[in-house]
UniProtKB/TrEMBL annotation:
It comes from the Bacteria. Keywords: Hydrolase. It holds the Pfam family HD. It comes from Paracoccus onchidii. This is DNTP triphosphohydrolase. Gene3D superfamilies: eoxyguanosinetriphosphate triphosphohydrolase domain-like, Hypothetical protein af1432, putative deoxyguanosinetriphosphate triphosphohydrolase like domain. Coiled coil: none annotated. The lineage of its organism: Bacteria, Pseudomonadati, Pseudomonadota, Alphaproteobacteria, Rhodobacterales. InterPro entries: dGTP_triP_hydro_central_sf, dGTP_triphosphohydrolase_C, dGTPase, dGTPase-like, HD/PDEase_dom, HD_domain. Residues 56-269 form the HD/PDEase domain.
Length: 449
């Protein structure tokens, strides 16, 4: 891959757009994302800790901003090294930083309410309907069903930024192709991933194939970006997928750094982990700094260690990028920068701690149980609208009074729905766009409680 292509500022579906002399397209991309409604809704979506009465734990909007900050710093360091190596022109390190910050801002924009358990709940609801499919479920092509059975917030995020937000069905936010490339962690569809899992295509274990990041209907949009960026395309029969853009690893590293470290800080804030446990984990990650903490509160000590740890993690990922540069540019690198860095062992220990103590905490478990029921209630409540829409040959004007009332009360967007695939995506758009609190309110309204 070549940086001259990878840093393309050409906009999706808008090749004629000219960059303003005082404001780069990549900066505009960031602005389009942070001023969008889907980004704003992240303020009321769970990160890991349930939305507490305590104001100091992280929700997805704060997390996304912090990931952007870390990603910008890491990308700037990588960019300066690339300039020194003669890989990019002086000044392009700023482009790297702006691209990564924009992609980081958008990285969770497709996530549903109630954290990652919300993804599981949506997938479980659709899976139940496909057990003995009827109506619009029986009419959906079998190859498309995994998009819903294994609902994926990454694919929903690409759908938002490239299709549904701003210029609907005409490029979405029309972000630069470089930002779209840096955003795309898993450049393949669910159907292609199913083929990979069956061993029909080589490189089935490639890191970028762990999940899927594209809905089948959005493949052409990403193919347009990938072609401009020069991402290697793998073709086998009628299935295709792409190698990751190098900056995906930077966005991913920033996310890994933030959630691993900040989850510990939040767990201390909520009392789920003791000061001693969090202090010791961060002290090790920060490479045992010799700082005078006399007179500092426990919270201040944790904040200090968090800041030092982030700085050390950025340096570790920078060195991992340098050490693996050739494989990254060839599209064959298949680990995360966190794992490949010198602090990989410390991060593995933090993940083990989080898995045993944070993700199994009582309040989080309660949230997941109630969130599963809430999401099921909402999807079951709106299903009759979409089923009757199908029965009426996709003519919304023919809906009966009750489905019409539901659509009006919830502002359901029934535009562009003319087949089962679009109908199910419309349902997924609605539920994944909800905040935790709004989902609870609508669940109660639809169930009459």
């Amino acid at each position: 891959m070549e940086w001259i292509k990878l840093l393309s500022n050409e906009r999706l579906h808008d090749r004629r757009y000219a960059e303003q002399p005082n404001r780069s397209i990549f900066t505009q991309d960031y602005d389009r994302i942070v001023f969008s409604e889907p980004f704003r809704r992240l303020a009321n979506k769970t990160q890991v800790q349930p939305l507490y009465e305590h104001d100091h734990v992280h929700h997805r909007l704060i997390h996304s901003i912090e990931v952007g900050s870390v990603g910008r710093s890491l990308a700037m360091s990588i960019g300066q090294w690339l300039v020194e190596q003669g890989e990019i022109e002086a000044g392009e390190e700023n482009s790297l930083a702006n691209i990564v910050q924009a992609a980081c801002a958008a990285h969770d924009i497709g996530n549903p309410p109630f954290g990652h358990s919300g993804e599981n709940a949506i997938g479980a609801w659709f899976s139940d309907r496909f057990q003995e499919p009827s109506g619009i479920f029986s009419d959906l092509d079998e190859t498309l069903r995994d998009e819903f059975r294994n609902f994926e917030g990454n694919a929903q995020g690409f759908r938002i930024v490239a299709r549904t937000e701003m210029y609907r069905n005409a490029g979405g936010m029309r972000l630069s192709k470089a930002v779209l490339g840096a955003f795309m962690k898993y450049p393949l569809s669910a159907a292609t991933r199913s083929v990979l899992a069956g061993g029909a295509i080589s490189d089935a274990g490639y890191f970028g194939n762990k999940k899927f990041g594209l809905f089948e209907s959005d493949q052409a949009l990403f193919a347009e970006a990938a072609g401009t960026l020069g991402l290697p395309e793998i073709q086998s029969g009628d299935r295709r997928w792409w190698r990751r853009h190098p900056l995906v690893f930077v966005v991913e590293a920033a996310d890994d750094i933030c959630y691993n470290i900040v989850d510990l800080e939040d767990a201390f804030t909520t009392g789920e982990l003791t000061f001693e446990i969090v202090r010791d984990a961060l002290f090790d990650l920060a490479e045992r700094p010799n700082r005078d903490t006399a007179g500092m509160s426990e919270a201040e000590q944790i904040a200090l260690l968090r800041a030092i740890s982030i700085g050390k993690a950025i340096q570790s990922c920078l060195e991992a990028f340098k050490d693996n540069y050739r494989a990254i540019m060839e599209g064959t690198f298949s680990r995360s920068l966190i794992e490949a860095g010198t602090l990989g062992g410390q991060f593995a220990q933090i993940k083990t701690l989080a898995g045993s103590r944070i993700f199994t905490a009582r309040r989080k478990t309660e949230l997941e149980v109630s969130g599963h029921r809430i999401i099921g209630n909402v999807l079951s409540g709106i299903l009759p609208v979409y089923q009757q829409l199908a029965d009426e040959n996709w003519n919304a004007e023919e809906l009966d009074e009750h489905p019409r009332q539901i659509a009006r009360a919830l502002s359901l967007d029934l535009r562009d729905i003319s087949n089962p695939e679009q109908a199910l995506h419309g349902m997924a758009d609605f539920i994944s766009g909800m905040t935790d609190r709004y989902a609870l309110r609508i669940s109660r309204m639809l169930s009459g409680t």
